[in-house]
């Protein structure tokens, strides 16, 4: 009788819509790895208990999505550098001694998608980041590491944007503006890391911030990216210079998969298959 397949899961609330099981199962099939991958819906009050129960019952690794990324970081015993800098985690691993290690693969996934798949060289460009939540923090650090000339962060609650910029600590390159204080600025790259596409609302930003060569990127994908894409194209971004976050989702999953299994999957066929549907 064969041993049970190693167990993995993604935690969120809600979580039924998650593509993570499909992505990790595709990676596993590609590399001939056996695994079980489930979705676990955990309300915030139950999140830590649910994760600890999962690991106590033999779980090996977990992905974490909204609204649990800060809690995932807080409950971990060890943290990768990417997780430590952002204070949030999207991946947890049970170590051999039972302790929990937190990872953050969002920033790396974003950079690989926009540079390797999207062909956008971030070096020397001026970037605008909308939002200051968990994913935005990871993207902010990743943009700085990738060599942007400047990074401007805006958020509806400006204090949260200030916190991200202060944590990065490079005021000459990374600074904040008020949401309604962008008139007269222009950017090569505009990244939406807000929840507007999911929760509703509009992008009441001056269209003058877009240049004729600007690229726009939404961390959401599919229908959730439609609102930002509509604004960006109306402001002058070429439709083929707009990217949504599906590629980032696949790339960050590949980082988690490699951390767990020691092998890196080929992300392109998985991305192409999902792109046909979303």
Automatic annotation (TrEMBL):
Q: What is its EC number?
A: 1.1.1.25
User: Pfam families, per this entry?
Assistant: SDH_C, Shikimate_DH, Shikimate_dh_N
Q: Where is the active site?
A: 69
Annotated pathway: Metabolic intermediate biosynthesis; chorismate biosynthesis; chorismate from D-erythrose 4-phosphate and phosphoenolpyruvate: step 4/7
Domain (Shikimate dehydrogenase substrate binding N-terminal) spans 10-92
Q: Which domain of life is it from?
A: Bacteria
UniProt keyword Aminoacyl-tRNA synthetase, yes or no:
no
Listed GO MF terms: NADP binding; shikimate 3-dehydrogenase (NADP+) activity
Q: Which residues form the SDH C-terminal domain?
A: 245-275
| Domain Quinate/shikimate 5-dehydrogenase/glutamyl-tRNA reductase span(s) in chain numbering | 121-171
Q: What is one term from the GO cellular component aspect held by the record?
A: cytosol
Q: Which family does it belong to?
A: Belongs to the shikimate dehydrogenase family.
Assembly with partners or alone: Homodimer.
This chain's function reads: Involved in the biosynthesis of the chorismate, which leads to the biosynthesis of aromatic amino acids. Catalyzes the reversible NADPH linked reduction of 3-dehydroshikimate (DHSA) to yield shikimate (SA).
User: What protein name is recorded for this chain?
Assistant: Shikimate dehydrogenase (NADP(+))
Q: What is the lineage of its organism?
A: Bacteria, Pseudomonadati, Pseudomonadota, Gammaproteobacteria, Lysobacterales
